[in-house]
Amino acid sequence: MNQPPSSASRFRLLMGSLLVLSLSCPSAWGQGSSPRNATTPGEVTTPYPTLHQLAVEWEIDGDDNLNGVVTTQYRAVGETTWREAMPLSRVAAKKRYFEHEKVPHAWKNKHSGSLFHLEPDTQYEIKLTLNDPDGGTAEKVVTARTRPVPGPAPNALQRKVTPETIGTAKPGEILLLAAGNYGEFHAPRDGEPGKPIVYRSEKGDAVFKTILLVNRKHVHLDGLTIKNEDKHGKGVNLVGAVDCVVQHCKVNAMYAICAPVPPGATSCYIADNIVEGTTPWTAESMGAHGDNIGEGIQLTGPGNVICYNRVTGYRDCISTMEGRIADQSCIDIYNNDIYTGADDGIEADFCHHNCRIMRNRMTNCFVALSSQPGLGGPNYFIRNVAYNITHAAFKLKRDSVGDVVIHNTVIKLGTGLGGNSPMEHAYFRNNLCIGGPVGDNQWGGYGGGAPAAADIRSPGERSSFDYDAVGVYKEPFWAKIDGKPFAEVEPHGIQIDMSVFNKVEFPYPPLPGRPAPDLRPRAASAVVDAGVRLPNINDDYLGDAPDIGAYEAGRDLPHYGPRLRGEN
């Protein structure tokens, strides 16, 4: 392999590759017409802010040859120094029809991207600089504010209630629920902005069969227990909910926390919950046609934050739902601890743009991360960890468009870095993926792919791969992308093996299930300082350059799953 260049050279290489990366195909020109290659800049929007991320979209006209570039800087209002972020991605307008749908999924001609790791409830300035060699230079500065961490109103009135008096809530109150069985509860009224209605059980002994927050606004569930043993029972129904919260709850139901049909939920906060289903980790349960059932957290709709939950024993543990016309954008899914996803650990299907799946840990899953498909993008998969995966780490299918896959760590059976379906305009950097033996077994009628380090078969001409580390356990090294040798496609990629970790066992056989290991790299292992700088993603790296994979050697592990009260 080539010697890695300096950090400064890596940054220039990154910027160059990002600037030419388009996240959709060129628009079709009418017969006899000429392309409109110059850019006419339009409106800049910052839709659906979340606690720690901001999306930026700059609509344009023209640029049919897709060579316009928007560089991005940001700073908190009052600061004097601008900080670099990744350039916005170039997304060309397109329509996609799917089976049984009469209305297309459509997206506009634009530049789009996210700012990461921001402070809650903080106003930011964002400077965007557009350059198109065919004409259309422009600069815009916009401001946007992140959402605050949701909580009760300051000096909220606290009032004790029982199953008989729970329906008397008023905006701004905290209702302290006495122990008891509350059955099926339909929240009777909305809170107000800054004055939510909070239903709280400090000991978790207020037990419900199901809670309906259908079309409710500004209602919080805090510390409740929901148990629904019906075959298709729902725990918390959030269809039509806006700015609602489900936090520190224990939910046992086939469909635990859900808003699976349009309009879904909007700007809701699902955090620190323990969500448990009944699907086991067996060969028969795995796959799309396996003997599995249930959805842990299943929300369609924009602006939702799903974080710090522990979800176990479902067909899909966390899902954005699929195949329905809904605005699935600006969704954050992070720091969740996921076990036994018999089909998908996280199913981020039919996401339009700026969905951010980050720092999740998935163990004992058929598929770790699904984008089937991404609809234009960019949609981000960053610093996720996947161990004991039997089919696919990244399920980018149905001509997925605009997936940004960076800094993930994968240990799985079969192919480590794999993709057997066409994808468009994917961007892979700094991923650590190791495959290995599969034996003669299949799970749910599917295998894990041939034992290989990498096999990306149809990436499309505008996809970009580099700085990944791949290996295969106890099998000859074999790695190709688009039928070409890995080293040819990834000049800064490296070959690795399990020795990059501290005594981690390869998960073969995958049954029974395994606990999540510590997948931080050993100091001085091959992946340390071997990555490329990605501004606003890995600025805090140690050493000469970022490490490849989800973790930086020498750093503490992230917190996965529920936090204690007061830690958010």
UniProtKB/TrEMBL annotation:
Query: InterPro entries recorded for this chain?
Result: Pectin_lyas_fold, Pectin_lyase_fold/virulence
- Superkingdom assignment: Bacteria
Q: Which residues form the signal peptide?
A: 1-30
Q: Which keywords describe this protein according to UniProt? A: Signal
Name by which UniProt lists this protein: Right handed beta helix domain-containing protein
In its UniProt entry, the species of origin is given as: Adhaeretor mobilis
